[in-house]
Fold this protein.
Amino acid sequence: MAIVWTQKQDVGPAARFEHALAFDEVRQQVLCFGGNGAGGLLGDTWLWDGGLWRQVADTGPSPRAAFALASDRARQRVVLFGGIQDSGFLADTWEWDGDGWTQLADTGPDARSDHAMAYDTDDQRTVLFGGDRDPQPDASDTWGWDGTEWTQLADTGPSGRRAHQMAYDTTHHRLLLHGGVAADSASWSWDGASWTQEADSGPGQVYNGALAFNGEGVELCGRRGDHQAVGCRRRREVGGRVADGETRLHVPVRRVEGVEGAAAHRPHQAAGHDR
C-alpha cells in the first residue's frame, strides 16, 4: 500500500540541506540541527513535536554541514559527531539532553564529514562508519561511542565510502548499511563484532539518502549514482533470507526553494566528488 505524504507545516527551520534529523524516542520529538542554508552554514537547533517546530537553541556545536546524529535511547541523549565548516573537517562529539548541548570529546575518529551513525540498541552504543576525509581516501573504519569515549571496533568490512546510510534493525538485532559514493551497491550488516555482506541486489548505489527502521523492516529513500530518485524501498526477512519489497513511494528530486545558491556556500568540495 502506497504511503501518502501530508504537509504538516510550512514555517519552522529555514530552507537547508546537509543538515541532520534524529528522533528522540524518550521525549517523542524530532531534533533538527545545522546544515547549509541560503546564507551559509547553520548552527541552530529545532524540535518537531508532531504539530509544530520550535527553535530551542542557537548555541552548542559550531555551524556545520554533513555531520551525523544518532539517538541514544538508553542514555536519553542525541549524539552528534563531526561534519565540515569553513576551516575544514571536524572531529568533535556533542550530546543533546533535551535542554542543551554539551561537548564530551574531541578525540576518537579522525575529522570527517558525510559519515553515518546509528544506535545499536543491543550493545547500547552509537556506531559510526566511513566518511569523507579528502585528500585522504574515504574512511572504512568502524567506531563505537558509549557516552564516555570512542573505541575503534573494526577496520575491515565495507569499502571506504561517504554519503551512505545506516539504521538499526531491532527485530533482527543488527545494523544495516547501504550505498554511498564510490561504493558497491551491496548491503552490509553489523552484528556488534563484524560486518557481513548481504544482498547485492535491490536499489543499487544510493547516496545522500535516508534509511530508517519502521518496526517491520528497513526503508530507504535517496538518489542513485545516475542522479535518478529512488523510491522508498522496504527490506525485510523472508523465510530466513533477505528480500527487497515493493516500491513504497517515489520521491522526486527538486531544488529547495530559497537554497538555490546555497551550494556555493559549501566550505569544502573535493574535485571529482559527485554529491
